[in-house]
Automatic annotation (TrEMBL):
The keyword Membrane applies. This is RpiR family transcriptional regulator. It comes from Streptomyces colonosanans. It is a multi-pass membrane protein. Belongs to the DoxX family. Keywords: Cell membrane, Membrane, Transmembrane, Transmembrane helix.
Length: 187
């Protein structure tokens, strides 16, 4: 039998804290629990910030957060769980980035913190107080870390890239409309 040390307890606390927060945020999106908008309300929000289609985006974000968070908290499939949660947080950070870093100003600080914690756990591993350890690390192999991050990075780049392009097009259209309005008033 292996000895549990303070590293294992620390990893358990990180997993429970970050995983729990992510799971709750995902439940808000998927089920409307804890004051969330559910798929319908979150889908409308996702559309408003450039993620289309909104309901599909809400479902994907909700599953990445709720599923990734729950698996992180349990310490199960840690590489995939951490990568999925980190990818979802990159998507959230993209929405908040125009507001700067600090969360009090609507910035990406919170999403970045959760994403980096999830990524760190995926890389470090769950520790001995985990389901991965109990199951002999069957879904927590070293090769799974780069595979999970590569797949997540590819999907995240496509989704966030498409969103950013839509937002640039929207801003350019609004600027053009304002310019045309100014010309009309000058005539």
């Amino acid at each position: 039998m292996t000895c549990i040390d303070r590293r294992d307890v620390g990893l358990l606390l990180l997993r429970l804290g970050a995983g729990g927060v992510l799971a709750v945020h995902g439940a808000q999106k998927l089920f409307g629990w804890f004051g969330g908008g559910g798929i319908e309300g979150t889908g409308q929000f996702m559309e408003s910030v450039g993620y289309r289609p909104g309901k599909a985006s809400a479902t994907a974000a909700g599953l990445a957060e709720a599923g990734g968070g729950t698996l992180l908290a349990l310490g199960l499939a840690t590489p995939a769980a951490g990568a999925a949660a980190a990818g979802a947080m990159v998507g959230a950070a993209a929405v908040h980035a125009p507001n700067g870093f600090f969360a009090q100003e609507g910035g990406y600080e919170y999403a970045a913190s959760l994403g980096l914690t999830a990524a760190g756990l995926a890389v470090t591993g769950p520790g001995r107080l985990s389901f991965d350890a109990a199951f002999g690390h069957a879904v927590n192999r070293s090769w799974m870390i780069p595979a999970a991050f590569a797949a997540t990075a590819a999907v995240t780049a496509v989704v966030v890239g498409a969103r950013n392009k839509r937002m640039r097009t929207r801003v350019e259209g609004e600027q053009e409309a304002l310019f045309e309005e100014e010309i009309w008033f000058e005539e």
